[in-house]
Each structure stands twice: as C-alpha cells, then as structure tokens.
# Entry
Amino acid sequence: MRVLVIAEHDNAALKPSTLNTISAAKKLTDDVDLIICGFECDNVATEAAGIDALTNVHVCKSEHLKYQLSEDVTQIVVSNAKNYSHLLAPATTFGKNLMPRISALLDAQQISDIIEVIDECTFKRPIYAGSCIATVKSNDEIKVITIRATAFDPCANEGGNAEIVNIDPIDSKGQSEFVSEELAKSDRPELTAADIIISGGRGMQSGDNFHLLETIADKLGAAVGASRAAVDAGFVPNDYQVGQTGKIVAPNLYIAVGISGAIQHLAGMKDSKIIVAINKDEDAPIFQVADYGLVDDLFNALPELAEQI
Amino acid sequence: MKALVPIKRVVDYNVKVRPLSDNSNVDLNNVKMSINPFCEIAVEEAVRLKEAGTINEVVAVTVGSSASQEQLRTALALGCDRAILVETDNDLEPLSIAKILVKIHEKESSDLIILGKQAIDGDNNQTGQMLSALLDIPQATFASKLEINGDNANVTREIDGGLQTINVKLPAIITTDLRLNEPRYASLPNIMKAKKKELDTINVSDLGIDIAKRVDTLSVELPPERDAGIKVESVSDLVDKLKNEEKVI
Ligand SMILES: Cc1cc2nc3c(=O)[nH]c(=O)nc-3n(C[C@H](O)[C@H](O)[C@H](O)COP(=O)(O)OP(=O)(O)OC[C@H]3O[C@@H](n4cnc5c(N)ncnc54)[C@H](O)[C@@H]3O)c2cc1C
Ligand SMILES: Nc1ncnc2c1ncn2[C@@H]1O[C@H](COP(=O)(O)O)[C@@H](O)[C@H]1O
# Structure
C-alpha cells in the first residue's frame, strides 16, 4: 500500500486541509508521499519536506500551474499515479474540483468526503446532508478519495526530512484560462481553521448588522460564518457559507445567531464541540442541536454579549 | 448552439432521510421525490440562455427508472425543448453516469453541458468533472455566473477563498452553484404544453458500456445523536457557562 496525497496550497504555503489529509493517509499506511503542483512554490516544498509523516515530496513547477487549473493538475497527477494504491485530497473546493477528473481517467469510482477509515477498502461517509452515515467498500484497484478535513486531526508539520523529488511538467492543453480572482481578505481566522465561529442567518436582517457579530468575533479571535439565506440575501460573501453545500466546520465553539437550523445548515456544523444558538423563536430546530440555547431577540442579546466577554 | 442538461431525480430536500430497519440502505419508501435543486438551477440557466438567443435548443437528460419521466416532464415545463430518459432500474454510480452521458453528448453534439454541482442524495459532487475528463473538454465547476462569448465562456466560480473567474473553450462542462440563478416555477399552461414535448427513451443496455458497481454499500446508519442541551435564561448565564463550565472562551 502506498498513498499519494495531492497538496492544496497557494504557492506560498500549504493549506491546513493538506495536513488533515496526510493524517487520513497515515491511517492507511506509513508510506505516504505528497505531490505539489504549482509555480514558484519552493517554500511549499520546503515546508512539506519538514512533515514527519511523509516519505517523498514530489514537486512539479511550471508557470502554467500557477493557478492549478484542474485540467493541468489532473494530467500531472494521473501520469504519476501508477505506483499508488490510494490517491487522497481534501474535500475542499480544490479537491472537489480536481479529484473526480483524476478518478475518471484512472477508471475508478471516487469515494467523496470520507469521515473515517475502516480498512484499506472500507470507509465511512455522510450522505443526504449528513442525515445518514454510509459504510462503503471500494472494489477498485486504485482508490481515489476526498477526505472531510474536520474528521481528521492535522498531522504535525515538523520533525520530518522527506526527500524532495522534482517531476517534469506536462504542457497545458490550454482548455481553460485563469482570468481573475477575488479572494476574501480578513484579519480573522479562516472558517475551517477557527477555534470559535460566530455565524449569522436571515435573522440578521442586513449585511450592516453583521458588525454586531464582528465585534464579538474580534474579542474572541473568532471567524464569522453565515447560513445560505444570509449569503443569498447578499449580507455577506459566498465564502462565509456553512453547510451541506458550503463549508464544513467543527470548531470548539459555534454560535448560531438568527439561524433556524435547517438540515442543510446543520450538515456543516453539527460536529462542533459546543453549539450555542441565539434565536427569538423558541421552537427553532437549531435548539435541538444546541448545548446552550438563548431565546432572545438578537438585537438585544448581541450587544450584551459583546459587553460581557 | 445546443445545451445538454443532465438532471437527477432525488429525495426532496425537505425530507429527512432515515436508514432502513436492517441498516442495509436508506429508506426511500413513500418519500417525496423532486428534481435535484442544483439541476433545477442548471435547467434555469440553459433556458435563460435560450431566451437570450444565445442557444437554440435545450435537451434534458436523465439516467434512471421510468419514474424519472416525472422530473423530465418538469424540466420540459420549465422550458427544455426535448428530453431523453436513459432507462435503468439500477442505482448507478457517478462514473457510470458520466460514461453514459459521454454517449449522449456524442449523439447530440452539444456545445454546452450544464450539470448540478452535486446531487443532494449521495452528495458526491463528481459527475460533471468526470464527464469533462472523459470527453477531454474543459470544466468550470461551482458556477455563480456564466457569460457566453462566441466560442468561449467566462465563468465565475465559488471557491473556498472567494470567487475565481476562468475562461473556457466550448464545448465545455459547467456545474451550477446555488447563486447562479433563482429557478422559476412551472406555470400551468407550460405544464400542459410539456406533456406534448418529445421524450425519448433509450435502454441503458443498448449503449454497450460497463456500468458494473465499483463500490458496495455495507451499511447505513444514523449519525451519533447530540445530547440534549439546555436553555439559558440570560446572556450573563450563557457567558458564565462558556467561561467557567466549558472554558471555551
Ligand atoms: C440544495 C440546497 C442546499 C443548501 N445548502 C445550504 C448550506 O450549505 N448552508 C445553509 O445554511 N443552508 C443551505 N440551504 C438552505 C437551507 O435549507 C435553509 O433555507 C437556510 O439554512 C436558512 O437560513 P436561515 O436559518 O438563516 O434562515 P431562516 O430559516 O429564515 O431562519 C431565520 C431565523 O432567524 C430567527 N430570527 C429572525 N429575527 C430574529 C431576531 N431579531 N432575533 C433572533 N432571531 C431572529 C428566526 O426565528 C429564524 O429561526 C440549502 C438548501 C438547498 C435546497
Ligand atoms: N442519474 C443521473 N442522470 C442524469 N444526470 C445525473 C445523474 N446523476 C447525477 N447527474 C448530474 O450530475 C450532477 C452531480 O451529481 P453527483 O456527482 O452525483 O453529485 C447532478 O446535479 C446532475 O446534473
């Protein structure tokens, strides 16, 4: 058994999701390699080589890999996949975009978003927005898997001395071209890496009112999230969305404010350690998963909360 | 220009699905079925492109049992011109669906294939990307904005860090995210008209492709329940619990 993990990174550093994915790989075998496709990404390679859990770090550098478009990365991973029994990537938008392509070209049926490794062929994964957990067994020769980062602790990124192996790039077919990106800039922690998250829903009424959450977030060092309804209404950008079709989070503390608790929202946060709900409707379903529920108007509760923490 | 829109019949998003009592699979007896919400968005986008004159034909296709005709009729009522049912009683995996869609695309030679980003039953999020790889055409997944300019499309994608815009050459695969558009409701006259639109059925065995299952479902269970929590009386109560009992702030 040999596992290849596909690194998620931004040419400057590894994304934390890569560390969770390596942990999942370690549950399968001790023989874990990493592949990094990018441009001017030597720092990422050096960082990766320091990860104790890794044997080899394969690096493919080329200008056309700067934005890691899936068609280009797929070619490189597929041509380097033959000695591996498993290919793993995080179930982030990066991994979701990339892995099914690789899987199809290797004629394997991908297993998405696993939360547990039972053995080399058998995995657990949520289905139907987390209403059920399926145990599935793959009969494919090569297993292509995405992992839910919140289900695996990150591996330590130190103590290692992996060998860096440069691999040759493959020319782009030029099917897709990067045009632009608008990345969220924030001094607050990233949602998927935060210890504490405070999220707002439709009950916030406007984007301006999110400052009530931001004040608290800044005091607690927390990230700010949102329900789909709040994103759809334009209160906050899309990258705030927590849920079945947004981000999956599992912080130590999740505070849901003015969020009703639809199953699609719960799918993204119900593995948080402590859940707090603030909602003026005492029958809101969010209270069924909340460790602490406060039935109150959020416009009363939030200023008070900001004062008392 | 022609758009192909693969849609899937799934359990309605309001249904809370439970395992069968023997835990062999999920219990789908007597539950409400609908078009997968992301596929509705795909249909809407294609129909809008037609209304704008960018494309002239929208073909809906589904792989499923004869019951899926219901969802194809809905797609026709929403504005698709024709529909194709690739009939099978087996619950196929995304790789097999993608292989079937390759055949349909070859028959139809569509310029644009718009799929949902994920089906809300299996939550796989695979079919569009697989189809793109098998056809060796570009993909633009998780689209929140689509602009066709001649032989190219500019697509804004929802990614974890924010938004990314890419340009793809047509033919291409687009998968829809929630904010691409807001699907319309089918009007009664359109529902009536849809009954007369063409709906072809192809048997999956006539396509001659290997659709054997690669992944077995061994069991389906409920997730661990969370213990019932408590209601606190006031903000100061809450702060006290979080600070002194849970020590999380
Ligand atoms: C395919 C699909 C995918 C989806 N994916 C997601 C997803 O990833 N994430 C997600 O979140 N949703 C998702 N949804 C949407 C989901 O079904 C719900 O519609 C959404 O989560 C509702 O958001 P909300 O709780 O903010 O709004 P609502 O359900 O409208 O709830 C607002 C709440 O605010 C409370 N409130 C109002 N005013 C106040 C006040 N002044 N003080 C205190 N409380 C107040 C109300 O009592 C109510 O409970 C998806 C839906 C579909 C169909
Ligand atoms: N049986 C099917 N028939 C037609 N299209 C499908 C089928 N299954 C999935 N799709 C398409 O692929 C998308 C993603 O599905 P999935 O990969 O299963 O999450 C769906 O939104 C549909 O557009």
Chain B has a mean pLDDT of 97.
